[in-house]
Structures are given as structure tokens and as C-alpha cells.
Amino acid sequence: MKKIVFSIFILMVAAFLTACSSGSSAEKKVIEVALWDENVKGAVDASIEAFNEIHPDVEVKVTYTPYANYWTKLKTSLGGGSGPDVFWMNGPNFYRYSTDGLIKNLEPFIGEDDEFNKDAYVPAVVDMYSVEDELYAAPYFTDSVGLYYNKQLFDEAGVDYPDETWTWEDIETEGAKLVNPDEGVFGYAAHTTVNQQGYYNLIHQAGGFMINEDKTESGFDSPEAKEAFAFIKDLIDKGISPSTQNQIETESKQLFMSNKLAMIPAISVNTPEFYEALGENLGVAPLPKGKQAASIVHGIGWAMNEKVEDEEVAWDLIKSLTSEQANKDIAESGFSIPAMQSTGEIWLGSVPSLDLQVFLDAQEEGVGVAYPISKRTTEWQDIETKEIQGAFLEDTSIDEALDRVAEGMNKILEEENNE
């Protein structure tokens, strides 16, 4: 009987230990990740899998929030002392998040880590996410702007494909030939509702700028900026481009993927979805030149919540997400140009039928122009959007609207520099 009782006791202890083991497994440490583009899911999942080989006790939960709601949700959660541990950061919002103490300075981690080298990444993106040479968001991928076109629409109209010789004049003359009102087809998207893909490039191609180098002056009221917008207005007035109202109602990229738009300036990130929609009918060329060539360059970085509970684990995750293998995964997926310079060539083969070198060339010195930012970018961009779209929607003076943009922007820049 004693042996039976002892055996029962041993079984009960074993069951108890098993239960405890299951309980601790259920209480895994959780790290929250937030971003907005599910097209990068495969690469992100691969990086998380690599991270879990080092941290099998950590569960990584990823939330994809549409861009339209991403920043409101993020700012509210971080401001409330919670929010994701690791998340995407972009240029327009970076200074606000870094100066408001919402994201961690990554430099202390980098200083103690022999595996992370800032020099391995595209310098423009490192600079974008640095404050006084200290990095606050680890570079993930970059994007530049090229001219995507629909070969089928060109062939049907008997128009030669665009190439590196094209200028603004070609957009107008050849774009007019591609218009087919009966089929609802436009020749070119003269963007007024998006900036990086549209008028930012044209302003620089005209010889102007949005913000000067020392971030003290707006360039929106310059003759060059007004020349760029006069070109946009001409394309819209002639019916070569969808109107601003059309662009608000239906995104130009949706028209392009529906065979209703022959040419669209767009960022490299659009490559996979454009290719999925158009297949071998998709082509890409450099942006047509104005007085000079120019393409706006931007990139995304991974930031860390200032109030993260386990910063060492969060740093290990950021390292995994920005590692050489992670950059290779980004490159092979075709999603966009990886931020690690040594892996850019891999991306070129992601869609063999496309000359993706166009986008790497667009980042080169003399062509690539860093996306314009300052401490309060989003505030002056709100003015920019309101005034520019308002002028096109109401058919009022775009020159006067640009003067108001510059006036409001200069006031904000003055306040920034006095803070």
C-alpha cells in the first residue's frame, strides 16, 4: 500500500511540474511590432524567425495598420505610455518623435555592439534618422522615384517607350498621343495629391527646392517652384493627366494598374504590385528631366519605443530586422531597395524584365535629392497640402497658393530655429 501511495504522489508531483511548465510557456515575453505595409510581411516574418532562434522565449506580435491611421494610432499609444516596442519611422515624422522623447537614441546600443555598422547603410537614410550624428532609427529600405509605363498602351498608341533622353516636353507631346477619352485612358499622372512621387521632383528638376539646406527658408514661392506647378496645371488642363478631383476620388496608381493610365511617376516600393497587375506589360524609365535630372529619395527606419520594457531584446530584434540577411530578403522579395549598400545589386534581379537599375541610379549624387524634412515637417506639409490642392480644386491662382505655403512654412521654420 505504501508503494502505491508513493507512486500516486510521484505522479501528482509530475503533473504539477508539467502544469507549471505549461503555465510559464503561456507566459512568454511579448514584444510588439508595428508597421503599415503588408507587402513586406514575408521579409519581416523571416527576420522574426531568425530572432526567435536566439530568443525562443519571446513572442513577437506584428500589427499592420493602414498608413492613413498609422500615425494617429502610434502617437496616441506612445503618448499614453504604451504602444509598440519596435515600429516603422518615416522622414516627415522623425524629428517630432525624436525631439518629443518618444523613441530611443540607438547610439548607446551601437557603441557596445560590434555587429552593427552604420557605414554599411545608405548614407542619406542614416543622416535622415540621425540627430547630431546619433542614430534614432535603424535604416531598413530606401525608395527613389522612376517613371513606370504601360507597354500595351504605348504599343496601341504607336508611341516609343520613354528612356533617359526624355524631358518635360516629351511628357507633354507623347503623353497627349496616349490619351484615349473613349476608353478613359490618361497619358500621365501629374500628381497634386502626393509629393514625393510628384511635384517635389518637378520643383528640383526646375532648379528649385522645397526647403534650403540650413532649414531656414521655404522654396515654394520661388520662380522654379511656380514653373513646376505651371507645368502640372498645363498637363491637367489639356486632359493629359487626371484632375486633382480625379486623383482624390481614385488614386492614380489604381488607374495605372487598371490600364487607364499610360505613365506614372512612383516610388520603387510600387514595383511588386505594379508587376503583379501588369506583368510583362510593365516598363520603367528614369524620370524625364526638366532643367536638370532629380529624383526624391526617402527610406524607412526601425525605431524603438522610449518606454520599452526590455531594451536589449528590442535591440536584438532591430538588429535582426536590419541584418545583412534581412536586407537580402528585402532585395529578393522585390519590395524595395534594401538600405544596406552591399545588397542593392540583389534587388536588381527581383523582377528580371524590368530595368531596376533606374532606381539605384536615381539615388546617385547629382540626381538623388533627400526628402525634405525639418523638426515640424508635418505642420508645414499640412499647409502645403491644403493650399495646393485647394488652388487646383477651386481653379484659383496656384502662384498665390504657393506664396501662402512659403509664408506659413517660413513662420514655422523661424519658430523651429528659435526653440
Automatic annotation (TrEMBL):
Keyword list, A-Z: Signal, Transport
Signal sequence interval, chain numbering: 1-26
Family matches, as CDD domains: PBP2_TMBP_like
Entry-linked PANTHER family: MALTOSE-BINDING PERIPLASMIC PROTEIN, MALTOSE_MALTODEXTRIN-BINDING PERIPLASMIC PROTEIN
Family per record: Belongs to the bacterial solute-binding protein 1 family.
Protein name: ABC transporter substrate-binding protein
Source organism of this protein record: Oceanobacillus luteolus
